[in-house]
Specification:
With 401 residues, this protein is an alpha+beta fold. The chain is built from 15 helices and six strands.
């Protein structure tokens, strides 16, 4: 069933929630809406917003830690805010006036209103699946409008319910940007501070230190809402920056707590905390790919510098492309390969001028000689390599003669 259709709104399903499932053993996650028909023996159905996606990909995406050229989350936030221009409660905050307003709307106008909202929800959730926790609230509101459109009964009661539901929903939507900013500030302090590959400072250590820093400097620690971590007693920070504080106190350690792997999502801040908590418990950091500039998640102790996204128009991931590029750069600096390139160009020139046939065996012999002397060169002591190099030059001359 299409959850963005009028048929779904008319069906009066029981929505049991939006669930975020992390499978660390498979490095996968899923985000889905569960619902069932209002019958005794109905089976639960699922609508997946993401299914078996890379672990924490939804969390990274909503914080704009996806690809370097990805659409920003603010676009999805603004789309949701446009719904205020469609639903009548923006203009009419009094339930009695709202009831009178509803009575003046035709059935077609209400239908068009519902369809417009569903279209925006689809666009916003496709951009940022993590915002799908809002669907349940919108479903209740749209179901009320649909019920009124079909029955035209109890407009006062429906208007009163709509007024309360929308007041709460607009608060949630208004807070999206603020919660996004707070989470970003935390992530940049804890997950991007020690960005050097192979860093010795664990993510849990950083989280503990940052918590202490916030306490002593009077700042808000975004992670506290999801279970406050134990703080150490230290000298007051006064006006010390986080970077200076980190340099001074990075010998501290904070143990982790066990974390659940399945959550029912009811708020944006909660979703953000789940990702932060998993990052800390798995000792992960965010690193910037040195090739494409995108963010990727990795163990703090890893020396990996490139992500696994496809690079540009190539069919290779950044880490594969960088590895090949590094190999080629080293290869073209190799003295044996440099001599091979000279000999290859000379032989190719003869073929192009028609002095040798295109299928001459000399080309294969030249490559075989190159491979033989490359191996010989690498397995020779440094002080004797010049002799191998000169010997290879002579062999090339003999071959081409």
């Amino acid at each position: 069933m299409n959850i963005y259709s009028l048929e779904f709104i008319k069906s009066s399903y029981e929505l049991t929630g939006v669930h975020y499932v992390l499978r660390a053993d498979r490095h996968e996650e899923s985000l889905y809406l569960s619902y069932k028909e209002n019958t005794d023996n109905s089976k639960e159905k699922k609508h997946y917003f993401t299914h078996n996606a890379p672990l924490l990909s939804s969390w990274m995406q909503v914080l704009d830690y996806g690809a370097a050229d990805d659409v920003k989350s603010e676009v999805a936030f603004q789309k949701l805010k446009k719904i205020r221009d469609i639903l009548p409660v923006k203009k009419i905050k009094d339930p009695a006036k709202l009831a009178n307003y509803l009575e003046k709307l035709s059935a077609d106008q209400i239908t068009e209103m519902i369809e417009s909202v569903l279209k925006i929800l689809k666009e916003a959730f496709e951009l940022r699946p993590s915002l799908a926790f809002l669907y349940k609230d919108f479903y209740t509101i749209l179901s009320l409008l649909m019920d009124y459109q079909q029955n035209r009964s109890t407009p006062g009661e429906i208007a009163s319910s709509l007024d309360m539901l929308l007041f709460s929903l607009w608060n949630d939507i208004d807070n999206l940007s603020e919660e996004y900013d707070s989470a970003k500030e935390y992530c940049e302090a804890v997950f991007l501070t020690e960005n050097t590959p192979g860093s010795y400072l664990s993510t849990e250590n950083l989280a503990s230190l940052y918590h202490n820093y916030c306490m002593e400097s009077g700042k808000t620690d975004f992670s506290v809402d999801f279970g406050e971590r134990i703080a150490f007693s230290m000298i007051p920070v006064e006006n010390m920056s986080w970077k200076s504080y980190l340099e001074k106190h990075k010998g501290q350690y904070q143990p982790s707590n066990e974390k659940s792997e399945q959550y029912s999502i009811y708020a944006f801040a909660q979703f953000l905390h789940i990702g932060i908590d998993h990052m800390i418990s798995s000792d992960s950091v965010l690193r910037i790919c040195k090739l494409c500039g995108g963010y990727f998640r990795i163990k703090y102790s890893s020396s990996q510098e490139y992500c696994t996204r496809l690079y540009g128009d190539t069919k290779a991931a950044c880490n594969e492309y960088a590895s090949r590029k590094s190999y080629k750069e080293k290869l073209f600096q190799h003295p044996i390969h440099q001599e091979f390139t000279k000999a290859y160009n000379k032989l190719y020139g003869r073929i192009r001028r028609g002095k040798l046939p295109a299928d001459t065996p000399l080309m294969d012999q030249l490559k075989k000689l190159h491979d033989e002397y490359c191996e010989k060169y690498e397995n020779t002591h440094h002080k004797d390599r010049e002799a191998v190099w000169k010997e290879y030059i002579e062999k090339n001359k003999e071959l081409l003669a």
